[in-house]
Amino acid sequence: MGLGAPELIIVLVIVLVIFGGAKLPKLAKSLGEAQREFKKGSEEGAVEETTVTKTVVVEKDGTEGPKA
Hints:
Blueprint: H1 5-50, E1 56-58, E2 64-67
């Protein structure tokens, strides 16, 4: 259930009335930067989740035990 063209036009008109024509480019720039930072952060989080760490268990006698 997404927004269609008529709904988007209504939202844009309301935003234009609230913020005015002068502030609209600044608002769009801020939204673009925020979206870019969010995407960058989510990509970094995905890389951290897929990184596998290797753990070596050393037994008391100095030999390596099972690896996880």
